[in-house]
Amino acid sequence: MFRGGIVRLRAVSPNQFHQHRKSRKRSFPWLLLLTPFVLWMGVRSARMHFEQPDAILVLGGAEEREIFSAKFARQHPNLPVWISSGAPPEYAERVFSKTGVDLQRLNLDYQAVDTVTNFTSLVDRLRKKNVRSVYLITSDYHMRRAQVIGEIVLGSRGINIQPVSIPSNQIEEPISKAIRDGGRAVLWVATGETGANFALTKER
């Protein structure tokens, strides 16, 4: 901090310094693995804005996501809505019905246990429905990680993403989460394994 011509440096404890170094070491292998995918995502992002989405994909995990997506679905009356591991069926159906959305458009799935499996559990079903592009709805603090995973998992099946963030007062997740789960998404594309057991030892 700079006050009255004096620069004050905040002291960092040895423990904080070592924790920071350990975090960087854990993220580095995933970062190397993700680099080619990040470049590929940039090319895809330039193309995806020219393709009109033909479905809405909502990631569960917060009540406001169903409320927001119901209003969004009403504004896009011809698109089916897929919700991955969101609120219980009774609540979700009540929210969408109250908003005036035909429940026949609603596809509720509860296989996912985390953000990576939000995508891996639905991608092949979306492909069978000939979905080529989706509106991806989740909270703003969660979108970076969701978009990294989605670009890799959905992109592996030729499905594009147009992100729709829900505003919140929460701080954006640390980039290490996006790197970690991006690595898990690459693992899934290569092997069919999601690394979900590893993720369960971490904060979702």
Quick structural overview:
This protein is α/β, with parallel strands linked by helices and 204 residues long. It contains eight helices and seven strands, in the order E-E-H-E-H-E-H-E-H-H-E-H-E-H-H. Helix 6 (140-153) links the parallel strand 6 and strand 7 (160-166).
Model description:
By secondary structure, the protein is an alpha/beta fold. It has a single domain (17-199), classed as 3-Layer(aba) Sandwich (Rossmann fold), CATH 3.40.50. The protein is 52% helix and 15% strand. It has eight helices and seven strands. A hairpin with a 2-residue loop joins β1 and β2 (6-7). The radius of gyration is 19 Å and the shape is globular.
Please give the radius of gyration in angstroms. 19 Å
Largest sheet: 5 strands, parallel
Task: Enumerate the strands of the largest sheet in spatial order, edge to edge or round the barrel.
Answer: 5-4-3-6-7
Helix amount, in percent? Answer: 40-55%
Overall mean pLDDT: 84
State the CATH topology: Rossmann fold
Beta-strand level of the residues, as a percent range?
15-25%
Count of helices? 8
CATH architecture: 3-Layer(aba) Sandwich
Span between termini: 34 Å
Poorly predicted runs of 5 or more residues: 5-9
Going by helix content, strand content and strand pairing, the class is alpha/beta
Count of domains: 1
How would you name the CATH homologous superfamily? HUPs
Q: Would you count the extended β strands for me? A: 7
Order of helices and strands: EEHEHEHEHHEHEHH
| Overall morphology | globular
